[in-house]
Amino acid sequence: MSDTTELPATLDIEGWTCPAPVRDRPRVVMGHGGGGALSAELVEQIFAPAYGGEVLAQMGDAAVLALGGARLAFSTDSYVVRPLFFPGGSIGDLAVNGTVNDLAMRGARAAYLSCGFILEEGVELDVVSRVARALGAAARTAGVEVATGDTKVVEAGHGDGVFVNTAGIGLVPAGVDLRPQRVVPGDVVIVSGAIGVHGVAIMSVREGLEFGVEIESDCAALGGLVDAMLAVTPDLHVLRDPTRGGLAAALNEIAAASGTGVVVRERAVPVPSAVANACAILGLDPMYIANEGKLVAFVPREHADAVLEAMRAHPLGTDSVIIGEAVEDHPGMVVARTGLGGTRVVDLPIGEQLPRIC
Amino acid sequence: MKYIDEFQDPELARRLLDDIRATVTRPWALMEVCGGQTHSIIRHGLDQLLPDEIELIHGPGCPVCVTPLEVIDKALEIASRPEVIFCSFGDMLRVPGTGRDLFQVRGEGGDVRVVYSPLDALRIAQRNPDRQVVFFGIGFETTAPPNAMTVHQARKLGVENFSMLVSHVRVPPAIEAIMSSPSCRVQGFLAAGHVCSVMGVGEYPELAERFRVPIVVTGFEPLDILEGVRRAVRQLERGEHTVDNAYARAVRPEGNQAARAMLEDVFEVTDRAWRGIGVIPDSGWRLAPKYRDHDAEHRFQVGGIRTVEPAECRSGEVLQGLLKPHECEAFGTLCTPRTPLGATMVSSEGACAAYYLYRRLDVPAVKAREASPVV
Asked: What ipTM describes this predicted complex?
């Protein structure tokens, strides 16, 4: 490029600028499905205005509906993971556990699931069978029944092998009211174990990356763990499973919806060394990596020790730990206290995290 | 992760900070050259912990930020072609060109793929002999050797459908340009450790002597950076200006000879435009004439693309330390990671992105950010 450029005798750095035009996004990009700010924009600007309705405005992992004297939790999710089978699970496990967990985050034990398969022409029936068997096994483990389903086939090249959608319903027990608006300053923030494991496990097989040790997804149904927590006190304030967007997105969503600030002690956040290694190599932040078998809980301070003890007594919560608290300062924002004593904002991710150049 | 935890030890950090406080007697302005160092400084809050006398100025060392608009536009043009598989490191995909980015090209049907190594792109070319595979080769001396090696391999293996869009930049000419400016306030440099692990330190003594600035080769973990600051301040307080290697666990004085030989074979030094800064003489690499067959710019005839940067964004001043990101009027209002005006707000190593991500709390004007709905 510089062959034709006339060089200045001396550089005038007073005039240096680096502008680029403000962009508009007329088409869907991957970040719209990343669980971050772009996803929120899509819901805020397109879906919510089109649908309307009071229930949708809850904007939780699952909607809680008053029906015939009972309170039902209702949720749906679609699964488009690649590869279909990965260390520690498969798209079948995810399709059950993801929806079961969305219900559990409202305090409901999942009772029934629907299951929709979208299959790409040419996929081996053996693969479909393996996914279905994994899905059935995961449902039995979670104590939920697949009650109805649907199958569609799309032309070759119009799908990615197997897509699965599940929806689920469950009953919310009396006295349980889990939603971010109940969070108050002083609430203790607990996470149920190591973070970032699922995302790194998927990355290691999808991108063919080898990190020295095999990392297995933490994919699991959390209904039992939530039951154990509610048995200690029904007065949990909010639960969230930090899936897409990771712990950072979950905390930001709670902070924004509750209007409280959140402070996290960075060194208290449990990051397995294998995850930390992989993230260091790729330039990713474990706080933003997806999990599929963990939850984050905001618990009234007076119940925190008992809840923590109950979580640690459950097989899916043995590594539960307090990572921070809700505060009056900086409402709507999440702030990390760094190991060295500084502070930094932990932001909602824009779209997907991208591995950096160097 | 022992080998990293050791370099984030709070007790050792406290001792280094105590030593720096005991050494400093008056204000000093130091520039960290590398965007990775900038992010480490802001992410760990090192700038909050250092004594007030020490100002850290963020340098131009973000490869994504300094890639010129016209090269981004060339990438967008090539990636839009139906016969092309365009491969890039992830963080280039969100950088705005004129009106769009690589993500949008992908949304419009372009075959744009994220790779973790240029060799992945070469493998894609071998598996797709009927397609043209192009790798976006940008970055400093750190990414240049593997990119050079990939072109070398493509030639050796006869992979004719592989080419590279090359826009590499070199650090020493940038330091020279910054120090030559009449408005320069920099009194010492924290040089980028990974650059020196490739190139060695041989390019720096002449610069340190000519501009009478200490240059301390520095790593990326918090203790590395504090040690770099400590050594630079010690020199400044004594009136010294030498090259000091504070990253000896990774940097040998002569660098990586094999990597340097590969660079010399595949690339040649050229003048290069830096986004927001302008042309800096001898500050870049391009493919040497004997590798022209693998030069995407030549293969796709995009040499004629010319762009004009509009004048709203001040990130060029940020890139060479005249302005802190939050001092820009557009920061956090017109310009956010969602609606970036400049690449410094997009790149994972950009100074504006670092301030926006980690420091908004300290900037009252942008504290009231837009409310995001829960999904």
From this structure: 0.72
